[in-house]
Amino acid sequence: LLLSSSWVGYEQASCKGEQFVFEKGEYPRWDSWTNSRRSDSITSLRPIKVVRAPRQPLPTRQTKDSQEHKIVLYENPSFTGKKIEIIDDDVPSFHAHGYQEKVSSVRVQSGTWVGYQYPGYRGYQYLFEKGDYKD
Hints:
Gamma-B Crystallin, domain 1; 2 domains; 4-stranded antiparallel beta sheet; 11 strands; globular; Beta/gamma_crystallin; eye lens protein
C-alpha cells in the first residue's frame, strides 16, 4: 500500500532539476516554498513514496508512523570513507553530531529523508527515498 501526504516538485519537466518538498499546507508565494534565487516556479510534481507493511494499521493523527527511518552518509563516493548513521532523528547540522566531513554517497535503509545543502535546513533540497546513492 502506497500512502502520501507529501509531494516533491521539480523546476524542470519530467521530474528533473532542483527539488522542492511540500508537506500539507498552503504555499501562496514562491518564497514560502524556496529560498532559491534561480527558480521561482515548478513544472512537474510527484507524491513522495511512503510505504507501510501490509499488516500495520494506517497512521492516524493520534499515532506516529511506526516505520523506523535509517540513513547512512559517507564521506566518499561508493560508500567509502568516514560515515555517520542516523536513525529516527532530526539533524539540523552534522557538526553537532561530530561529523565534519562532506557527504558524497548515501544509503537509505528505510524511510524517506530530505537533505539540505547547508546546515539549518537551508539551500537546495535533496529527496532520498529507500536505496543507494553512489555518487
